[in-house]
Amino acid sequence: MDIFLQQLVNGLVLGSIYALVALGYTMVYGILELINFAHGEVVMIGAMVALSVIGALMGAAPDLPGVMVVLAGILVAIPACMALAFGIEKIAYRPLRRAPRLAPLITAIGVSIILQNLAMLIWGRQYISFPPLLPRASFEFFGAHITLLQIVIVALALTIMAGLWLLVEKTRLGRAMRATAQSREVAQLMGVNVDRVISATFIIGAAIAAIAGVMVSAYYGLAHYYMGFMLGLKAFSAAVLGGIGNLFGAMLGGLLLGVIEALGAGYIGDLTGGFLGSHYQDVFAFFVLIGVLVFRPSGLLGERVANRA
Amino acid sequence: MTLLSVENITKRFGGLAALEEVSLSVQAGEIYGLIGPNGAGKTTLFNCMTGLYTATSGVVRLEDVEVQALKPHQIVKRGFARTFQNIRLFANMSALENVMVGRHARTHASVIGAVLRCRKTRAEEAGIRERAQELLRYVGLANKSRSLASHLSYGDQRRLEIARALATEPRLLALDEPVAGMNPNERGRMGELFRKLREGGVTLLLIEHDVKLVMGLCDRVAVLDYGRKIAEGRAEEVRNDPAVIAAYLGGEA
Fold first, then answer.
1. Which residue of chain B is at minimal alpha-carbon distance from A203?
2. N or C end: fewer C-beta atoms under 10 angstroms in chain B?
């Protein structure tokens, strides 16, 4: 029982990070029907920038409390990622707005490779460790072990999701985003500057990605130029699982995927008589993706694609 | 005063000329009808005027401003709105929200204002909602504001499209077959709505097949056939024009 609860907790933490990243995929897909494969790299850049700032601050002001240092890292990473995403959209995707759908998709993969290599040149190939700045407090909860960091990650993720929902449902920009998602042409004729809305979508997704990047590197204690690839794939799987283009779908898909993965990792050894170990946990994400694509191509909360447009 | 002038608009799709040297001018305050057989180029002309298509050559002026250099959202801001022949509402939004999107052209709130919940932003949002309610009342949909656009009846959807276009505060409203598929009763009520709009100071440009409605409603009419304007003038003059009769009934003009 305590293994179950422990893995459930771990899964929820991981899942809330997946959900944040998945939101970026799903928002862009909702508006442009583009799978922005570079989004995982934006997460990675967010982690890297934050770690650089954290490293510099620790050298320059060793007396600063750890939490403040990490916060400063996040506050620099967010605008850095926003600017990056703005540039990616403007340079790589906007010129292809009217091109066949395959062209921006290939471009997205290209951008992703470029960003990985740039990060490798800037930050090197080695793993960068996240310095032990955050309080290590933890609690027992019915036999499960919960750290303060885990609680903060989940709480922050839920807050961001709620904020995003409010933005999309209740504000003028959100209305313009939904209108643009349904019909770019008609939205323009209502006075919506579609280019600006698309930029805003990328920028908002990137801000969330930056936070997710810091979360994931703080959680695992590591960052690496290649970390965005697997994280991006899983978040994309989560978005598809929930129904790509649907915000709640991304949230639900992310949390579900995290839990499935954690439970899978916890029990796979028992289930296969020790044949497969917990390092196979990554496999689950893709089993889930395949399963969803076979049985429910539109995702759990997805609409049929024919209903959009 | 000339509100809209179209001068020698040509639009080619590959080798096919959908519009050939079409010119017309709409006076402020009038109801101007654009008629013609299917495929005559009426909707293409609308698309060229509202910025969805780029004309191959020619000029469209709204008052003194050439609009073809502008983006669609800029044209809307200058007071030119339109509806679509095949209704194009935001199907997943409520009727009220559809109209609220139309207020986008006349409002300014930024994300930052919304995040900080500043007073100006909240007041603007309340104003958007209130104006949208008013417009729904105006077109007769006051009690449908919460319905999803896709759940409305056909006639109500047409009305909603008009309310949404009105939300942009147009001086010129272009309606693409606004009564298509309506029964005579609904058509009559739409005709009343158009007169009410004109009295409210909106100039109307109307694509329509229903000759009776056009003749009863429009001050002036232009007739397109195979991408060319074959007649223009007061409704009764146009009706008796041999070229128009030939275009509608077939045969040699």
1. B111
2. N
Q: Which residues of A113-127 are buried (b: 16+ CB within 10 A; e: fewer)?
A: eebbeebeeebeeee
B185 lies in some domain: yes
Which of residues A18 and B105 earns the better pLDDT score? A18
Determine, for residues B106 and A191 on separate chains, whether the beta-carbon distance falls below 8 Å.
yes
Mark yes or no for CB contact A171/B125 under 8 Å: yes
CA distance B150 to B147: 8
**Domain holding A58: CATH number?**
1.10.3470
Please list every residue in chain A whose beta carbon sits closer than 8 Å to the beta carbon of residue B81. 189
What is this model's ipTM? Answer: 0.87
User: Domains in chain A: how many in total?
Assistant: 1
Structural domain boundaries, residue A226: 2-307
User: What is the per-residue pLDDT for B251?
Assistant: 55
Residue of A nearest to B122 (CA): A171
CATH number at B19 reads 3.40.50.300
Interface contact flag, A182 B82, Cβ < 8 Å: no
Quick one: pLDDT band at residue A265, thresholds 50, 70, 90?
confident
> Do residues A57 and A51 lie in contact, with contact meaning Cβ atoms separated by under 8 Å?
no
pLDDT tens-digit profile of B202-230? 999 999 877 777 888 899 999 888 889 98
Interatomic CA distance for residues A274 and A278, integer angstroms: 10
Q: Cβ–Cβ of A194/B73 closer than 8 Å?
A: yes
Which domain range does residue B206 map to? 2-79+170-249
In contact, A52 and A119? CB cutoff 8 Å: no
Q: Assess if residue B103 is contained within a domain.
A: no
